[in-house]
Specification:
CATH topology of one domain: Dna Ligase, domain 1
Number of helices: 14
Organism: Komagataeibacter melaceti
Largest sheet: 5 strands, mixed
Number of strands: 13
Shape: globular
Order of helices and strands: HEHEEHHEHEEHEHEHHHHHEHEEHEE
Distance between the termini: 40 Å
Cofactor: Mg(2+)
InterPro entries: DNA/RNA_pol_sf, DNA_pol_Y-fam_lit_finger_sf, DNA_pol_Y-fam_little_finger, DNA_polymerase-Y, DNApol_IV, PolY_HhH_motif, Rev_trsase/Diguanyl_cyclase, UmuC
Subcellular location: Cytoplasm
Pfam families: IMS (PF00817), IMS_C (PF11799), IMS_HHH (PF11798)
Strand order of the largest sheet: 5-6-1-7-8
CATH architecture of one domain: 2-Layer Sandwich
CATH superfamily of one domain: DNA polymerase, Y-family, little finger domain
Radius of gyration: 21 Å
Strand content: 15-25%
């Protein structure tokens, strides 16, 4: 890494089980109980789960019926996105007291470049401690933070001591810390990519570091350079304040392959609910809906349509996604992953839209 990269100070702050923690803060009767934020109907989906629920294997993006099978005592509460947005604004106002270089990732997490902080502190660790204390004092919620010399390691560090934790990865620690981690714990390597790496004998950061760049390029294409760097604790991506959002989406890899049209419809409906919740949280909608379908041989297709009117609600998003899915059936093989994305973004309520209708695949 360059000297400039080694001397950067990056903090990743992540609120702990944000939506669920807000509900437990505001309703003492929910504290200590397994809690899911989301709908508990047949096609509902978990938007967030408390740590008590996570002990049973309940996770965000999980269909509600699956969550209830894992945890029969699970309590569901409907999301209150207006409340979450207001608290998020409080938290981001705290960030702004310490630096102007803030890259929000969602309502509950952000990167901060504190190489040149606005307030004098003896270290980035002391600054992260102050941020977490102010969040707790002003919102009654806990946040975890990771401190390091790049974004990749700061993100890993914030996950390392969750919940309510703080962890620091120094330039000297970075390469060895990465070497011992399973690749599925790397931010930026999802379940499908981790499975491909396992098939190639790559199970840890050290295994990944031993791969020639030429082999990574052959198997992972344009992502190879990123994987080559992070295996060595290197990541030169800057913190990008006010980066315009181009899309809102989500995807899910399924434990069992999907073959039947009714099952795929139900899964896409649940996924659309999740993505629309993210759109609502940001006061956004969009005119382009794109789906991704990945089969069990890792072949994938992408289809999208730009309409004359923006998406109205979760049901409308689900209908558009399912219409794009229909030509894929009957499927040639099992589906392991579904994804849906909304782009062509605009503020919710803005009905201006392009006149053309475009379909791509």
């Amino acid at each position: 890494m360059t000297d400039q990269q080694a001397h950067r100070r990056i903090i990743h702050v992540d609120m702990d089980a944000f939506y669920a923690s807000v509900e437990q803060r505001d309703n003492p009767a929910l504290r200590g109980r397994p809690l899911a934020v989301g709908g508990n109907g047949r096609r509902g989906v978990v938007a967030a789960a408390s740590y008590e629920a996570r002990r049973f294997g309940v996770r965000s993006a999980m269909p509600s019926v699956t969550a209830l099978r894992k945890c029969p005592d699970l309590v569901f509460v409907p999301p209150r996105f207006d409340v979450y947005r207001a608290i998020s604004a409080q938290v981001h106002a705290i960030f702004a007291r310490f630096t102007t270089l803030i890259q929000p990732l969602s309502l509950d997490e952000a990167y901060l470049d504190v190489t040149r902080p606005l307030q004098p502190f003896p270290s980035a660790t002391a600054l992260a401690t102050a941020i977490r204390a102010q969040i707790r004092d002003e919102t009654g919620l806990s946040a975890s933070a990771g401190v390091s010399y790049n974004k990749f390691l700061a993100k890993l560090a914030s996950d390392y001591r969750k919940p309510d934790g703080l962890f620091v990865i120094t330039p000297r620690m970075g390469p060895d810390f990465v070497a011992g981690l399973p690749v599925e714990e790397f931010h930026g390597i999802g379940p499908a990519t981790a499975a491909r790496m396992h098939a190639l004998g790559i199970r840890t950061g050290l295994d990944l570091r031993r791969q020639p760049l030429s082999r990574l390029l052959r198997h992972f294409g344009k992502a190879a350079d990123f994987y080559y760097g992070i295996a060595r604790g290197m990541d030169d991506r800057p913190v990008e304040p006010n980066r315009p959002r181009r899309s809102v989406g989500g995807e899910r890899t399924y434990d069992a392959d999907l073959h039947d049209w009714p099952a795929v419809q139900a899964c896409m409906t649940a996924l659309a609910e999740l993505v629309w919740g993210r759109c609502r949280a940001r006061h956004l909608t969009g005119v382009t809906v794109t789906i991704k379908v990945k089969y069990n041989d890792f072949r994938q297709i992408v289809r999208g349509r730009t309409a004359t009117e923006p998406v109205r609600d979760a049901a409308d998003l689900a209908d558009r996604a399912i219409n794009l899915l229909a030509p894929c059936f009957p499927v040639p093989r099992g589906i392991r992953l579904l994804g849906v994305t909304v782009s062509g973004l605009r503020a919710a309520g803005d009905v201006a839209a392009p006149r053309q209708l475009a379909l791509f695949s």
